[in-house]
Amino acid sequence: MSAVQSELGRLAASSVKKEIRSVRVCRTWTELEQFHAGWNSLLQASSGASIFQTPEWLAAWWQAFGAHKNLLALVFIDSDENTVGIAPLYSEQERFFGAPMKVLHMVGAGSGDSDALDFIIAPGYEQMCAQTFLSWLAQECNWDICALETLPQNSLIAQHLSALTHKNGSELYSETSPNFFIDLPPTWPQYLDALEPGFRPLLTRYPRRLQSRFNVSITRCEREGDLVSNLEALFTLHQMRWTGRGETGAFSSAERRDFYLRMAHAFQGRGWLEFWLLKLDNQIVAAQFCFRYRDTVYLLQEGFHPKYAVEKIGYALRAHVLQEMIRTGAIRYDFLGGTDAYKLKFGARCGSYLTMRLTGTLRGRLCLAARHRKQQIKQWLKRKLPAFVPAPLGRKKTKAPASQANESTE
Predict the structure, then answer these.
(1) What Rg do the C-alpha atoms of the chain give, in angstroms?
(2) For 113, what's the count of Cα atoms within 13 Å in the CB-facing half-sphere?
């Protein structure tokens, strides 16, 4: 048994007997990095941990997007000086209905790139960390709203926070958003058999047709020396699709391009990167940027050349990636957030993320109450009015979040 496994076993066995003795607030990433070993131990002990909770993901995100944000990462310490929980937060000024608000977010939230964010907690310490976190919030006067976004559906921290705030009579607003994923079977034929008969040819016959028309190669980016050029190909392909629709595209942001480069290097070093490229006659025409953590493969972004849309190159690439993931033992292919209908064609089922917002001041409560009422009205209008009516009502045109703007393969 390794030293790490021994320590995790000791923590799990003693967790019910321990209490949280202190909370350390890290205001720089260098301070938080001092708890790197404990952070990784907590992730190893958590069966439901996602790649979005790893130091690699969050460090790359902070380095790219954190320039004008204030880090407030909480580290929960027990009586034996063990790290039993980490809540990586930051604060920034935002405007709600024209009023300035100081908002707390989890590191990774706010740019549209992260899903399944959560506190990183040792098993058995969830309730104690939730209680300690609420106590810290009560003492920390300088905030209006605390937004905990895209928590997993089964987050224990979310459950305890909800119960504790309800018991205390505190204001808490919750909402859900969809998350689609495929439960991968043991074999490729089993996966194909579960699809609608009319859809299967797109994953079988069309890739064969592509082979007959072009010199086709599909490769995984495995060499660090190829990473920059392959990312540039992804950025270009994705931008071609969105700028062709009159949109700016996710990769018009220099911060996001920087984030992808930092994160991809870190993931490649850990063997987590699943970055696949399809070439026709030696030209990259499609790319799928995924990563793998434990037995789950996450699709973050993709792009393909509109010139070859009729050839169904997006289907060909996804079919290859799915086949490889099944062959190598993955059990879930996660499309992440978004309501795109094409995901259902691939046999995806729908889960959900939870966003919780707490208030710390009167103006925060008034703001969230107004926001909640506005959402209720929109939902009522959507149910009651014909589908053609909402469009002229001045709906603001927004760009899809980066983590949810993965391309339809059609």
Answers:
(1) 23
(2) 25
Cβ-in-10-Å burial (0-12, 13-18, 19+) of 264 comes to buried
Task: Name the H helices within 169-302.
Answer: 188-193, 205-213, 224-243, 254-270
How many C-beta neighbours within 10 Å does residue 65 have?
Answer: 21
pTM summary value = 0.88
pLDDT tens digits, 43-60: 999 999 999 999 999 999
Q: 276, 288 in Cβ contact below 8 A?
A: yes
Closest CA to 404 of 321, 322, 318, 343: 343
Q: 185-330: what CATH class?
A: alpha beta
- In tens, the pLDDT along 213-248 reads 999 999 999 999 999 999 999 999 999 988 878 888
CATH class of the domain whose range is 3-178+352-393? alpha beta
The residues spanned by each domain of the chain are 3-178+352-393, 185-330
Give the strand pairing for 145-152 and 99-106: parallel
Tokens in use for 70? 């204030």
